[in-house]
Give the backbone structure.
Amino acid sequence: METTPLLDMQAITKIYDNGVVANDNASFSLRKGEIHAIAGENGAGKTTLMKVLYGLEKVDEGRVMLHGNEVNITSPHKAIEHGIGMVHQHFMLVDSLSVAENVMLGAEVTKRGFIDKSHGIQKTEAIAKTYGLYINPLAKTQTLSVGLKQRLEIIKVLARDVSIVILDEPTAVLTPQETVELFNQLKRLRNEGHSIVIITHKLKEIKTICDRVTVMRHGKTIGTYDVATITEAEISKRMIGAEVRVERVERSIQGGKPILEITNLTRHHPGEPSLHDVNLSIRPGEIIGVAGVEGNGQRTLIDILTGYASSYEGRVLINGVDIRGRSIKAVRELAVSHIPEDRMIKGSNPFGTIGENLVSTTINKPAFNRAKGWLINGRKIRQYTQRLLKSYRIKADNTDVPVRVLSGGNIQKVVCARELDSQPSLLIADQPSRGIDVGSMEFIHRQIETLASNGSAVLLVSADLREIFRLADTIYVIYNGAFVGAFNNDGSVREDTLGEYMLGIKRQAFAKEVARRDAGNAAL
Amino acid sequence: MQAMQRFKSMYARVITAIKRTLNLGFVFELARTLAAIVIALSVAAIIILIVSDDPGFTLRVFLLNPLTQPDGFATIFSRAMPLIFTGLAASVVLRAKQFNLFAEGAFFIGGFAGAIVAIHVGLPGLLLPVVALLAGGLVAAIFGTVPAALKAKLDVNEFVVSLMMNFILLWIGVYFLSNVFNDERAGDITTPLFPEHARIPYISQDSFFTSGVFIAIAAVILVFIFFRFTRFGYNIKTTGDNLAFAKYSGINPAGPIFSSQVIGAFIAGVGGATEVLSHYRRFNWTSLPMYGFDGFMIAIIAKNNPLAVLFVALFFGYIRTGAVQMEIFTRMSSEIVTIIQAVIILLVAAQAFLMSLRKRLMMRRIKGLKHVEATVEV
Ligand SMILES: Nc1ncnc2c1ncn2[C@@H]1O[C@H](COP(=O)(O)OP(=O)(O)OP(=O)(O)O)[C@@H](O)[C@H]1O
Ligand SMILES: [Mg+2]
């Protein structure tokens, strides 16, 4: 007989205001000192189930048992009192505050009526020491890289002395090294008696770190399995109901003028990672992958290429046009698409409908207008967006649903659908498959390959090496604002080799490498 | 035959469009607002019960007189008319998340400009009121560019600038009214009489129902179309919802930030001119009419939806008419209206109000569906 689990969620049903049944009689139980994964397609109800546990969503039916007693968790505050903490899928940080202030937010310690700042700093440093989560407590949050923001979120939760830690897709934005680090920290937490729930789309992670996995599908829990006794393929089969088939799209790099030409690009700007002397060119049909640990200048590069950052040295040509001085809009007009790092800030308008979001960058196209451009052609737009909704398998009844109510992965699909389907000549993709489930990821990757096979150039920046290995012809590693390595993605490069370059342990004599790459490409 | 076909397809399209709008969410929002109104009226009724010597009579006067008096409906619409304009103006500005209170000053200066044109520009027939209204809108829009441009170009807080503008325009207006356009013979601070053909006519001789109401309704429809069917409207909405996303999508936010404020000023200005040429024989405002501020309240209750603005403004017209009646016939003060407005605002703004009811309805419907599914499976 099994001992009573630490936590037992029984027959949970959660229906959102708009009638979506997000959890349908779902059950979940957690043992003390285990790392327990929740897997499932986008929109399966993983986040919702955990939000119910954390008191963010009110449960409609079912009950939650903690240490064998029924508890009624109605707010995150109560959840924390019961020792449950959660790190969200989307960051919940106040950008204008410092790290320490964010850590103490909502639990400030006061001294004579004033907030005791030194306490927050001490606490942050103490946690950093105990768990190896190093961070500068005085840094402004807005200057942090995504990886560090993630770390800050975890520190925030630990600062509340919780024993159950819920992590909603924590590794979606992390590099392999950061992931390994995170996992070491999680193991440390487990050994100290914490119990951990981790939602993830990366099945390999489940195999490496988790003890058990619960699979969800269409709001229901399909089952809980010991990780030791189940294979990745079996997990994904239970998630989707079918196996994921990887199909590559045949394509070749085409000759002719490069679509993107970057020469000697340099930018130094206070408070932002710099870029040193970057050279790169992408020809039609070519996919270039840029791998690197967050905060090494990738964002700066993308900001310049998309018209966000206007002061720089060097030159950027897109289809032969110098983009210096061009606005974001004017750069887009050169047929540039951009999948941004953060779907909730740049990438979408949560309050707009799916339809409005899908055409935000193409609404000026004559096909979508009527009456000499004065009016929007609602019917055309509806047809178009309805088609995208279907082909990208965005989980929503229709395109009039506000984006705000979609699950994280489905929002990402909206962003990808818009940017991939606008016939760009250059696609700049910042981790396009972030938070997307295995099945849909395969679809998105095929779309990107198709785009390239039709003659577009693709710059893929990703912390997710699987994605880079899957798509790129050539992999550049960026470290400290400069390219430190270039590799032909012909199957000979290994993940840990790239990792060494990403961490700055190794560095190529770069000019030689580029020459080799060009020679290699010429031989293709 | 073909006509029949076309009619059928159009009918089907209209039906789907209506169904799309009338989803549970919309119906519930509507019901919520109605419930808020009922509760607010009940609060007013309770106060009247406590305070009044003859509560039955007072209540009857307050609630029923506007509907039963011969001129009741005409008065409700007339009182609502300026509120429709300012409510619309505020809704456009708020859609872009701009906290610009210029509707007040725009309404004032628009009325003044309309009056001056009516008096001093010799135009024949219908042309005169039309030009006067447009002039009212235009002058307001021109002044409206000040807070708009300062915000769009220099990121100066539009709230402060627009609030100051209101008073600056008031005092400039009063100065010109008393020193330049004053009617010496009137013995008061006022312009001469408007020429008769400049005035916006009442529908019939014996009713106070001004045809300005139709102009207001036309404005509602135009604003509705603007947001539903034009790119400008889309850009304003997007900029208001998420500035970073608007920039990313290739919208230059300065455009919507500027134009929303100027359009708002234009609408309020036309409203001022309409009000002056409908309800006045000469222009004699020496204080701000306060319609602009009311407009913000209305836009908030209406959640910036232009059609809802129309109905909320009509409701305001109704309770204000009732309050005036009450003041005439009983000893109750008309201040009760302020309480009603405040209660409605609080309830409408409270997101959780009635949400649990909605939830229960939802559950029942879904359970019903599930039941059906289960039976089908068997
Ligand atoms: N606030 C909300 N209002 C209405 N529906 C919602 C809301 N949040 C989520 N949903 C819906 O509930 C379902 C489950 O969403 P949830 O976020 O739990 O999915 P998930 O399994 O976490 O997916 P993902 O892997 O994409 O993050 C989805 O269909 C989503 O559209
Ligand atoms: Mg989720």
In short: The longest helix of chain B spans residues 24-51. Chain B has a mean pLDDT of 87. Residues 80 and 317 of chain B are 4 Å apart (CA to CA).
